[in-house]
Amino acid sequence: MDERCDWTREEIREIHDGPLLELMIRSAAIHRLHHPANQVQVCSLISIKTGGCPEDCKYCPQSARYRTNVSPTPLMEEKEIVNLAKQAIAKGATRVCLGAAWRSVRDNAQFDLVLLAIRQIADMGVEVCCTLGMLTEFQARRLKEAGLYAYNHNLDTSPEFYSSIITTRRFEDRLKTLDAVEKAGISVCSGGIIGMGESIDDRVNLIHSLASRNPHPGSVPINLLIPVQGTPLQDRPPIPIWDMLRMIATARITMPKAMVRLSAGRLERSLEEQALCFLAGANSIFSGEKLLTRLNPDFDEDEKMLRLFGLTSRPAFGSAI
Ligand code: SAM
Ligand code: DTB
Ligand code: SF4
Prior knowledge:
11 helices, alpha/beta, binds iron/sulfur cluster
């Protein structure tokens, strides 16, 4: 079956709520139809501008509105960004994602610096992604010209729950940026976070919003909330593994060709739990000791894990079958 963009919310809820093991088996079968099942994409994050963000995303340690242990740092020098990318590639990353705690991109010298860094990293033969906040079509075109492969911009949660988590922008603003990215011919990376107190319907409606896009996003990060001290969501309890598996499997079944990324929150999960996530259809991870500000399994640990599971690293620019 090819990409379907006309899923109804009811259909997705039915998939999501199905008998767990049947759901996993169905998802694993679809995964194998569309991707080399033993390959996992290894991505690496570089926080090129950390903290001090004007937005009020309730989960985020980088918002200037919450007192967290993040100390704001200015934009990195171009050389430092490129060097960090080199190190990540040497450790096995095939996709490098540059993250900035900006509300939106501005057409200034800082953006020019980021474009120069993107060009140099793209020339190293890896997929370059970045996540810089909201973009105009013109800015998206400039990123494409610089060699950008993908742009990450998460919908994060359902349209209905969005304003309970973020009040400084609207769900529709996110969609607009995704449209600009797509129009520029850049691969869309968009997913969300689970464990913020959302309902099952909110999770289903997030997947519905992603799977209704035509084409589907090229990659869908599923982040497990990392409750950070000082943020309004600091006391949220971890979600059960079963919820993670349902979310991953539902994303895989509804968006068969997408890379489904097991993103934030992996450090706290056992190898057994991660193995189940790969079985449920996840085929991408962030590797390296830091995400943007939080800890994450390092490259050596992940290499051992992949070896243990008989998985190999997916080459850059590999496409769905
Ligand atoms: N400022 C840009 C933006 O919001 O698009 C880019 C950086 S922002 C930190 C990227 C993504 O990180 C968010 O959309 C969210 O999904 C994820 N994230 C941030 N804090 C998180 C947390 N505590 N736990 C899980 N995911 C988180
Ligand atoms: C995504 O979906 N997750 C990554 C990446 N895209 C930019 C970010 C996770 C951030 C986790 C919290 C932190 O490290 O501050
Ligand atoms: Fe800023 Fe992005 Fe964090 Fe929101 S998620 S506060 S926009 S860095």
